[in-house]
Each structure stands twice: as C-alpha cells, then as structure tokens.
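Sequence design from tokenized structure. All designs in this work follow the same two-part layout: the structure record, then the generated sequence. An example of the structure record is given first.
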C-alpha cells in the first residue's frame, strides 16, 4: 500500500530555475517521442506499438543529439518516457483518450522522478528535503513523521498560483487503531457539513463568504487586464499585469482548497479514532446541488472529499465504512419508523405524529442512516 504526501516547497531562485528547466526538458522529451510515435503510425499503420524498453533505449541517442538534456535529473527523463508508455497502454485498453502534446502555456507543470540510492531524503527535523539536481530545498510538511526509507517516488509540481509543491509516494504503514465498540451514522448537509447519529454537528466553514471580497477584487482586475492586453495586441503569456492577477485568483482558490481539505482531514480522523463502524449516505449525482455558485460547488466538493478521505482512512486504520442508499432517510421517524412524508427544506424540527417524539431533521436522518447501515452489515 502506498500513499501520497503533499508538501509545499520554497526553492530559491537558482533552484526554481532548475525546476523550470526540468519542466521544459521533460516536456520536450514527451513531445518528441509522441511526435515520433505519431509519425511511425502514419507511415505504417500495421506496426506494433513500441514497448517501454524500446522507447527508453532511445534516450541515450537523444541525449547525444541534444546534449543539454544532461543538465537535468536523468530519472525525471526516464519517468517521462515511462508515463508516456503507460498512457499509450491505457489508451489501447480503452481507459483514456489518446495522449496529448504538452504545452509551455499550461499554468500547471510537473515532473516525476524516482528514488535512486538516497537522493531524496529529509533532514532530521523535516524542514529541508534533498531533491535530485536541486540540493537541499526548504519545505513544509504535515506533522506526521516520514522515514526516509519509505519514500518511493517524487512529483515536483507548480500550481496555477505559481507556488511549488512536491508529492512524495511513500509506503503506508497500516496502523490499526484500537476498537471502541461504537458505531455512527453520518448525514452530510449544507449548513452543517456532517451531522452524527449521536447528535454532534460539524459546521460548514463558509469559505465562500470569507474569500468573496478578495476574489471579487482580483477577478474584476483579471477580466479588465485581459481586455486591456487584447486591445494592445499583447499575448496573454507576456502581459505582466494580467499574469499577476491570474496568479492572485489562483492563489485564493488554492487557499480555499487547502483550508477545506485541512478541516475535512481533522473531522474524518476524529471519526476513525472514535468509531468502529461508520455509516455514510451514498452521494448520487441527483442529490448533488446543481448550481454554479461558488458556495454550492464547495459543498459538493466537500462531500466528495469527505467520502474519499473516510474510505482510505477506514482502510488504513482497520475500521469499517458502510455506504447506504439515502432513500427516505429524512422522512422516516428514527424511533418508531413511521413515514410522515416529504418535508420542505426549511423545516428543521418536527414531531412524529405516531410516537410524538421531537426530531432534529438532520440528526434523525443520520440515525436512520445508521440503522440501515447496521442492518446491511448483519446481512453481509
Ligand atoms: Zn415516531
């Protein structure tokens, strides 16, 4: 089992230049090889696709032809060829589209590299990481300690905001958490992100409200500067002020994503620590909120992330996750099972006409989710 760990890195100017050069060189290799394969296919359509070993045997020849390729991490070049070969495999199996050429104009760039000896390693307090051809780079990791011998591979990437990150692929240690003999049902909502069957509510963060002013400010400038550059006939890649605004907008979106993920990490970790069996409602596309507003899309993303995090954490820590169909969970009384029909969304509390129990809408739903899940668990 592997897991990815993302860390932010702070390269100095010289290191940033080397990273940019590696983006460029690996992109060059990708495009050259893809071009060559396209041409080969056009010339003779019956030829079999070249295998990875055949493709990688072309690298030394290319390095002789383009000597500057030697300036960057050779593992990164090797990995590019491997990724291209895998992309073709996936295409032939029908899993994905035909591989595309890579563009310099893409705001997100990345390259992959693998460990050779101990060329990728943290220093003792994990404030710095040694990366191939870059030397020691300042970094910021999450609190968990990563032993150097668990690192398998590395992706260096630049996000749209211009900031650099690395993703380390590390072997994950399956640490089973102690059993607590407690089970829980979770309902996912809008104003509260998660509501549990034992009455806990985890409020939504309302990040769209926190950042809407900043976002509005920079988005307005972005569109104004785009028009200005067009009027002057300057390509957007070279329009400096436009690029500043673009990066600012991307930066705010990244900030929102990071804050959101961090919060969901905290909640999901709490759940796997506290409970043995966790029951969650299935998110089908029809009950996803259909609206293009930022608030709605953030809620949808949060639900999806919540489930993904819970899935992998349950597996990692030896807990059980049950996904149930949310059919009628907001209509039935969790105490006696009486179906009191559909209720408008603004009704937050209701009283069961049959057993006269007072219900909080969301807590009642999560109790029903828990019941359905535990019944399913008995059957299977
Ligand atoms: Zn009832």
């Amino acid at each position: 089992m592997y897991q990815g760990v993302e860390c932010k890195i702070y390269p100095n100017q010289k290191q940033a230049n080397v990273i940019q050069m590696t983006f460029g060189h690996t992109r060059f290799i990708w495009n050259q090889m893809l071009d060559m394969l396209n041409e080969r296919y056009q010339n003779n359509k019956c030829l079999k696709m070249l295998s990875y070993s055949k493709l990688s045997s072309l690298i030394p020849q290319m390095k002789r032809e383009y000597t500057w390729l030697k300036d960057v991490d050779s593992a990164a070049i090797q990995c590019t060829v491997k990724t291209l070969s895998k992309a073709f495999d996936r295409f032939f199996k029908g899993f994905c589209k035909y591989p595309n050429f890579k563009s310099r104009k893409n705001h997100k760039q990345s390259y992959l590299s693998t460990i050779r000896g101990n060329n990728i390693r943290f220093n003792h307090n994990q404030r710095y990481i040694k990366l191939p051809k870059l030397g020691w780079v300042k970094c910021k990791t999450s609190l968990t300690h990563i032993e150097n011998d668990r690192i398998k591979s590395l992706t260096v990437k630049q996000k749209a905001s211009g900031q650099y990150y690395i993703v380390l692929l590390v072997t994950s240690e399956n640490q089973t958490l102690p059993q607590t003999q407690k089970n829980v049902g979770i309902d996912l909502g809008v104003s509260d992100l998660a509501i549990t069957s034992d009455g806990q509510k985890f409020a939504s963060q309302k990040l769209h409200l926190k950042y809407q002013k900043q976002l509005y400010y920079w988005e307005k400038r972005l569109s104004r500067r785009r028009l200005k550059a067009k009027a002057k006939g300057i390509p957007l890649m070279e329009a400096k002020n436009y690029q500043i605004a673009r990066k600012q907008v991307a930066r705010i979106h990244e900030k929102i994503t990071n804050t959101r993920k961090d919060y969901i990490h905290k909640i999901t970790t709490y759940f796997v620590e506290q409970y043995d069996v966790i029951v969650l409602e299935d998110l089908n596309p029809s009950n996803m909120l259909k609206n293009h507003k930022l608030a709605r899309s953030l809620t949808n993303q949060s639900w999806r992330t919540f489930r993904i995090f819970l899935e992998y954490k349950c597996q990692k820590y030896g807990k059980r996750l049950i996904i149930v169909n949310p059919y009628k969970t907001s209509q039935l009384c969790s105490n006696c099972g009486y179906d009191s029909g559909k209720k408008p969304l603004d009704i937050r509390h209701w009283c069961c006409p049959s057993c006269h129990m007072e219900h909080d809408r969301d807590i009642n739903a999560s109790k029903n989710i828990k019941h359905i899940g535990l019944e399913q668990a008995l059957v299977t």
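The longest strand covers residues 2-10. We note this feature because it recurs in several other targets discussed in the main text.
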